Amino acid sequence: MLAALQIPEEDWLQAPVSVRTALATLWQHLLRLNARCSVYAHQVERLQAEAADLKPLQAEVAELRERLGLNSRNSSTSPSADSPRQRRRRKHEPSGRKVGGQPGHPSHLRRLKPENEVSRIIDLRPECCAQCGCLIPRGNFGPRVQATVAFLTGRIGASHRDVVEVMQTVHGVEVSVGTIPAIQQQVSTVLERPVQAVQAYVQRQAVNYVAETSWPESGQSHWLWVNAAEQATLFRVFPGRGTEQAKQVIGPAYARFAATDRYGAYNWLGNQRRQICWAHLKREFQRFVDRGGESEAVGSQLLREVREMFALWHQARGGKLTRGQFKVAIKPAQGRVGGIVAGGN
Questions:
Q1: First to last CA, the chain
Q2: Ordered per-residue pLDDT tens for the chain, 345 residues
Q3: Is the pTM of this model over 0.90?
Q4: Which of 79, 95, 227, 299 is 20 to 30 A from 284 in CA distance terms?
């Protein structure tokens, strides 16, 4: 210490003991700081070297982020190619008024044909249908027009104005925009009983295939649920995506099996009554492969078993294997999959 600090020994000996003690303590602290700084310097050098190696990857990530962010507002991409999240929605301040036509607005009624274009006028007021005996639907349109409007809006997803144009251009029927929701409501009322019958039928089947997907409605997020059986499929729209909605779709009389994905809303079914969708499982196994390392080996083995199992299933569906033969042939694959999963843990 004395040599490093260039302090003569006689000066050191003449210094008070307290001064020498304090200086020795500071010297030891300085040595520790120097050692720590040396370690940090090596770490900085290593990080700089790694950063240099990562520059090409960082450039690639930046390019991919830029490409993902492209839309009709910052590139030549057409607006129709924008994702729903990228599409700009006009913000309107709430007026406090109810949706629809306001009191005092000009009416838009169907115009009657001029009398000079009509050969004769018949005042016909039927009370019921001559074929089925049901009451005639209220309004100016019969069941075929109502069914067409409901199909275009409910199944095809056409806007109300587009439906007005189609009905005028294709069918020669004048329908106002305001009449479209009224027709939709009438059709919905008529279909209540058939939908209830379909729901009761589907929920009694031995196997249900259940799924859900997002479904925007009136500017809010809803969920479209589906329960498919062999002869019929039930669609329901709910504001939620939880266990309560899953139970309503599958029904309280559930007694056999349901095929679902791994979403937690179906966990109440129990493993003995729930078949996880193999399409989802296959994607999970592919994700193991893409992850690399030990996961890649596990995923590759599982994908190989998936291919073998479905080869057997296609033979059974094609009539080359009976149901009993298929159950026997699939047993070894089931055991191997269980072993791979257990080993992967």
A1: 58
A2: 778 878 888 887 888 888 888 888 888 888 888 888 988 888 888 888 887 887 788 778 878 887 777 776 666 666 767 776 666 666 667 777 776 667 777 776 667 778 888 888 888 777 776 766 666 656 678 889 999 999 999 889 899 999 999 999 999 998 988 899 999 999 999 889 999 999 999 988 888 999 998 888 777 889 999 999 889 999 999 999 999 999 999 987 555 788 998 889 999 888 888 888 888 888 888 988 888 888 889 999 999 999 999 999 999 999 999 999 999 999 999 899 889 888 865
A3: no
A4: 227
